[in-house]
Amino acid sequence: xxxxxTLVLVKPDGVARGLTGTIxxxxxxxxxxxxxxxxxxxxxxxxxxxxxxxxxxxFYEPLLEFMMSGPSxxxxxxxxxxxxxxxxxxxxxxxxxAAPGTVRGDFGxxxxxxxxxxxxxxxxxxxxxxxxxxxxxN
Length: 138
Ligand code: DAT
Ligand code: MG
Known about the structure:
By secondary structure, the chain is α+β, with helices and mostly antiparallel strands.
């Protein structure tokens, strides 16, 4: 048993398209538990901290702009191996190649360069999860 916590974001495209409930239903159906949940409207500083590893990459600026385009839902989620489990449920980063049955595969949209409209974020390691939870739930 490896009970973990992870940070999930329903990104602005997910909230704007009314997919928050659908995504939460999949999370709950999988057996993960909500510890905390809130609507967030992050400023640039918060996003720069969250996406620090991507600074300087070609998609960095469009990514921050997109993340400031509307509210997101931040979720503190817990469960056995939830970090890997949520990322599996989310699907791979690019919605076109994400497998059907995953959130990104079923609902994500590929607008050419705007690969970032992939609906959800999930922490990728225990270290990332603790760092990111500190940013969004301090
Ligand atoms: P993930 O969100 O699957 O962990 P990541 O951490 O590599 O992916 O990237 C963070 C976000 O940045 C991702 O959700 C969408 C955007 N992104 C990543 N690679 C991209 C690319 N090649 N073009 C456009 N956006 C990209
Ligand atoms: Mg990532």
